[in-house]
Amino acid sequence: MIATHLMALKGAIRTLLLIGALATGGAGVLTLGVGMDTPWAPWERPSEIMFPPMLFTLASFVATVAFCAATVVFHTSLKMVTSDPDKWWRVSGVLFLIAYGMYSFGSGTVEAAIMLNLLHFIVGLPALTLLPRASRNATLTMNSQRM
User: Fold this and answer.
1) pTM recorded for the entire structure
2) Cα torsion for 21, 22, 24, 27, to the nearest 10°?
């Protein structure tokens, strides 16, 4: 089972890096270019210190790649329990984006929440469309190597 997840991650690495680059570019444009607020700094929760824009931009790459890698593992797990993993993965992804979109309004300012929602839209659409295909291609490649 672990080998299946690792093969799916290996097959999706280019897509993960592409989505990470989109997150970095989106965060950079929104925070550094446009000057939108960032969320509260997680290490200073009691105060109202905001995440530094440059650090937020760089952290967007790491967080996106890590989270999307977890979703590849989730998608691979769905393949083991359902006949239509793409549908269930997309439904759960949309539900997550809606739930996190509402939750992000507690991230500091309304502008920071809007910025986070725009950033999740920039990351979410490519992730919802590209990751299942990348995972499927990795599985096909893995199955053809077994034969």
Assistant:
1) 0.84
2) 180
Ordered DSSP codes for 99-137:
HHHHHGGGSSSHHHHHHHHHHHHHHHHHHHHHHHHHHHH
Q: How far is CA 135 from CA 2, 61, 81, 95, in A?
A: 14, 20, 16, 21
Kindly state the DSSP code that residue 44 receives in the 8-state scheme.
G
Give the containing element (helix H, strand E) for 85: helix 85-103
Q: How far is CA 129 from CA 30, 53, 114, in A?
A: 23, 28, 23
The 3-state DSSP class for residue 35 equals: coil
Residue 13 domain boundaries:
2-146
pLDDT in tens, 88-102: 989 999 999 999 999
